[in-house]
Amino acid sequence: MNNDILVPLDVPANMHDEYRKNYDAMTRGTGKLMLFAGDQKVEHLNDDFVGDLAHEDAADPEHLFKVADAANIGVFATQLGMIARYGMDYKEVPYMVKMNSKTHLVKTSQKDPLSLAWYDLEQVASFKKRSGLNILGVGFTVYCGSEFEATMLREAAQLIFKAHEHGLVTCLWMYPRGTAVADEKDPHLVAGAAGVAATLGSDFAKVNYPKAEGANEQQRALDFQEAIVAAGRTKVVCAGGSSKDNESFLKELYDQLHVSGAMGNATGRNIHQKSFDEAVKMTNAIYALTIEDASVEEAVKMLA
Asked: What are the structural domain ranges in the chain?
């Protein structure tokens, strides 16, 4: 166990070793996070699991668990109900419980987004103890700019404080969204959201990759540096977004890590929309880039 891990002051002294153990396991001893995101069964309903972009393997929810079990990852994030249904067959998977989720059916034009917690931390802690599963942390989405942001901010703050009391690691999905938000991928706004995650005391912040109008890929990576600096000791990881060709995705990820200074990634569709074999290869390539400091060329070769 890495004793050099920075332990936040809201982690009780008797939980320092538990926190270090969970953080070390989630980041594979590197401090960088490779998060396999599997919360889209709620967020996007079935849109990501059938259709032209999705392989037929993706239609079965167990596909997510099979990939998480077979491939190299830091942590697999999904809802507690999914973990309860499949976890007995995938006991070695490192889990992050996604504590809140909402569908995309209600559009911002109809109502600003509000995503409330489904469970409290005590329920998660009880489930972890009873199930014996490898639950390392919890995740929560905050929509900065929503007229309901105050409610989500308070829930996030309470969740992080209580999670740290149990030695669990936290990650906030920080998405500027609502009628007050003109461009949710504006680099300055993304940086602001990352800074909010820091004030909430989260260990990691998951943000969308910013894109300023007219910016090329190099400028985009440089723009992302603002968010890394704004988050301070909260480490920023970038959401993978919609599926794109493998080499372009890996090159973009490399720039996020080595130009911008991100400390990991959170990838969903670019993994689980593939067949099982291809998804495992892609996950291992992403892991190699993120955790093992592989080059793009080395990662691409892993896909063959």
From this structure: 13-301
